[in-house]
Amino acid sequence: MLILRLNSVVLRIAVSLALAIAILWAAAALWIDGPESRALAGMLAGGLILTAVTAALMVRPWLRAGVAVFVPFAIVLGWWLTLAPSNQRDWQPDVARLPTATVDGSMLTLHNVRNFAYRGDQAFTERWETRTYDLDTLVGFDLFISFWGPTAYGHTIASWEFADGRHLAVSIETRKEIGEEYSALRGFFRQYELYYVVAEERDVIGVRANQRGETVYLHPLGGAPSTARALLLDYVKEINAIAERPRWYNALTQNCTTTIWHHTKAIGTGPALDWRLLANGYLVDLAYDRGTVNTDLGLDELKRRSDITARARTTGDPEAFSMAIREGLPPRRDLGAANAVPPAR
Fold first, then answer.
1. Residue 338 pLDDT
2. Helices (H), strands (E): how many in the chain?
3. Is residue 216 classed as helix, strand or coil in its secondary structure?
4. Beta carbons within 8 Å of 190's beta carbon, 6+ residues apart
5. CA angle, 147 then 152 then 155, to 5°
6. Rounded distance, CA 168 to CA 159, Å?
7. E strands along the chain, which residues?
8. For 207-246, b where at least 16 C-beta lie within 10 A, e where not — what string?
9. What is the mean pLDDT of each run of 10 residues along the chain (345 residues)?
10. What is the pLDDT, as a whole number, of residue 318?
11. By C-alpha distance, which of 217, 234, 181 is closest to 325?
């Protein structure tokens, strides 16, 4: 009997906590994604919380009270899921054009490749270009991690290396409107469309190391070129899909790192879910544990040698940017014909 009572108490606490979190989320959704009128949004959010608290205190038994609290949350969730992203907004210039791609045999043609010349973070000369790459000449896949402050979390950027020395970088970001700033909190709601920046490394990496003053690390990943090719083609599929049907960015489920993970899972090489996919400042630790980066060096030495910030800031010739930032890097680990990411341990 005592065990049953304890189980009942634990269940009530767990349900109450889950409902409290749900109501707080719903109130935040009404405030952030609700009416533009702050007064009306505040009234709706406050009214939701008042309704839930009243139901929790007044309705009995507790199971019925739980249902009474859940109903307004479900209504808000149903409304929230109807909010649709758009490709037709007044976009900031650096995300104004959507990239698209075509594949003809081994030839990949990308339109709206960004190759801006920066004088400042928001001061640049726009250059949108069309580039063609031979997928048969793919050498491998690299991962950049850029930090603007604490190193538990940064921004990840994928890059593909070709035998002719060219590199193709893709940065998964928010597509912001003119006058709009990124907010980590708002990133958990339906405020920003998902955007794939397809760019030259000297654009998307150079602006972070120079104009934004970030610290950037470059990690060549081991694996067969065929795996790098499959990953790039999966990116291309999503890039074209977004051009046809926009999608929401989400700071948890569709961010710069979890989206890469979705792509690796799609081609059958993704690791099992790991906390370091969320605290992505530790991604290299995960890659080191799994042997996808060069493990001939100790982890601390690997990180030290992978810091390309100084080289990115001192490279004078923009045409030599990709080659210059790779000077002194630990070499790519040769995994032969194995997958770029081996099976999870």
1. 39
2. 11, 10
3. strand
4. 33, 80, 83, 85, 248
5. 40
6. 5
7. 100-104, 107-114, 117-120, 123-125, 128-134, 138-147, 155-162, 167-175, 193-199, 215-221
8. bbbbeeebbbbbbbbbbbbebbbbbbebbbebbbebbeeb
9. 62 90 97 96 96 92 91 97 97 97 98 95 93 97 95 95 96 96 94 98 96 96 94 98 97 94 92 91 94 93 96 87 94 59 34
10. 80
11. 217
Tokens matching residue 3:
């065990």
Q: How far apart are CA 231 and CA 269, in angstroms?
A: 9
Q: Tell me the one-letter amino acid at 264.
A: T
What pLDDT is attached to residue 335?
A: 56
Q: What is the pLDDT of residue 5?
A: 61
How far is CA 284 from each of CA 48, 214, 218, rounded to the nearest angstrom?
43, 18, 10
Please tell me whether residue 111 adopts helix, strand or coil conformation.
strand
- In 3D space, the residue among 62, 69, 73 whose CA is nearest the CA of residue 30 turns out to be 73
- Residue for token pair 């702050």: 38
